[in-house]
């Protein structure tokens, strides 16, 4: 008897899991196909205007466009998939049959959470390690053939490149590779040891050194200047700094794997660089977004397992409304974090916390 019940449960788990994953991937495939058609219709004039070759359009842009938008829509379509097939099961009295057979509602949730775990792991690996390298190619294509955008340099740069070593640059021009009014200061605790200033700075890719023009170098003992040197040009090695540190790349954080993102945040924090909110938000979002699959699955099953007036359409309507509420909540909270009014981790996780509460309430009211 026990073995028979175990076999029934395994068949039930497989049945629900196949419906969950099948509906999810079909919905993602459908929306991505529609998105590609609309995107091509919108951008085809830009492609022709800037002379984009067809192989670049297909393999550089759309091949990398598909995983990016698939991962972007994952939380939304986890919810819609659960609502759709669970509501269908409820109106075909399958849910009633499952619960009447002695299977508890909590046990019935097992294959749902197993499906959410598969999708969450897929989303985490995709967002953390597959999409960032693909984004480099996609964003480069967009900058060249859609936006006709060039790299921009930063202004008023002031950073610590290693303990006691500070670099300042008034402006860096990415298109020419020249920096204006460069200076580097070295300190022993609070006492200055040396300072080198230059009117222009340019990185030599062949030697890996910075070429300083119209420079003045000062050395200090006990904070008092005792040696000064100047000249028209000098090559110097500046540790832990390259031109990419002075470039403002569009959505640079989207092109970093999890390992690169964590390393970049650590480096910039050690340098004393501020305005890392977007990078921190991206870091926390790559964990919070896959985790949201469990929360939205809980809400979806609890909501759609009950028959109500209005049928499946009401369930889907409520599900879509809750999905967009979740996305809106996430957008608003991350905007507050970018503006510096909220902790980035809290901003990313607060929608999950709030919707976890909604999920628990709906679970408690679900038919048992």
Tally of separate domains: 2
**What's the helix count?**
9
Shape assignment: elongated
Instruction: Tell me the strand percentage band.
Output: 15-25%
Give the SSE order as H and E letters: HHHHHEEEEEEEEHHHH
- Going by helix content, strand content and strand pairing, the class is alpha+beta
Radius of gyration: 28 Å
How do the strands line up in the largest sheet? 2-3-4-5-6-7
Termini distance?
23 Å
Helix content: 55-70%
Give a short account of the largest sheet: 6 strands, antiparallel
**Mean of residue pLDDT values:** 82
How many β strands by DSSP? Answer: 8
Unreliable stretches, pLDDT < 50, 5 or more residues?
none
Tag the structure with descriptive keywords:
368 residues; alpha+beta; six-stranded antiparallel sheet; two-stranded antiparallel sheet
Question: What would you note in describing this structure?
Answer:
The protein has about 375 residues and is α+β, with helices and mostly antiparallel strands. It folds into 2 domains: about 15-145 and about 275-365, no CATH class; about 150-250, no CATH class. It contains 9 helices and 8 strands. A 6-stranded antiparallel beta sheet has the order 2-3-4-5-6-7. A two-stranded antiparallel sheet has the order 1-8. The protein is elongated.
